[in-house]
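Continuing the batch. This is chain 6 of the set; chains 1 through 5 are on the previous pages. Same settings as before, nothing changed between runs. Recording input and output for traceability.
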Amino acid sequence: MSLFFTLILAAYICATIAYIVHFIKRDKKIRTIARGIMVAAGILHTLYLFARYFEVGHTPLTSHHEAVSFFALSLTWAFLSFRWRYQVKNFGAFVSPMVTALMFIALFSSHEISELPPALQSLWLPVHASIALAANGFLALAFGGGIMYLLQERELKKKRFGFFYTRLPSLEALDTLNHHCLAIGFPLLTLGIITGSFWAKQAWGTYWHWDPKETWSLITWLFYAALIHQRFTVGWRGRRAAIMSIVGFSAALFTLWGVTYLLGGIHSYVG
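Output for chain 6:
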């Protein structure tokens, strides 16, 4: 299984290199190759998770390796599904490095199989965990789009139409990207918190503990809720929305990893 996972990582690395080469040279053939490798890597990665399921005997979302691996897969398919629907120039050059970085983290995390704690032996496990990680996938897309927006805006403000200007989408296209990613990611984040509450009720007898991870999940949700509200009521767009998406995703990452290793709590069994 470790060799299979390494093979998938190699495919993601190849896709990343191809996307970056296309970003530099703007060769459509290289872009097609990059996209094909990314699709192949996503399919192989999906098969790996199915194989992992049969190996461990339960939904492979409980260890740090499994959670990060699924996060990478969620980001991959979120990107590919978005790419098939919308045309966002050179988006792959920013998304594929994030996927590869997650895969490296998963590679160096323990692949050890351990018995599930009683609280995790529930049908809510695949529902809650998969929805929450899928939400992070779309929020990561908004993060990548935010980085691209700030780079393009910098080029325009300096009136230096150089390397990035000709390779990045328009500010309007990037703002639309941000809108659509949040329109999918935020409802998934909401559903993830709701399903987590039902799971907590089943496992511990109460819907909410104010555990550190629950608290930070709520903080992250409130942050994105404020961003969504401001976009629709006040008309926050452009630079503000891009910066908020970057900060919001940082909060989501802290909820996923920082809380587990720094604050502990009843969710600290993950990893």
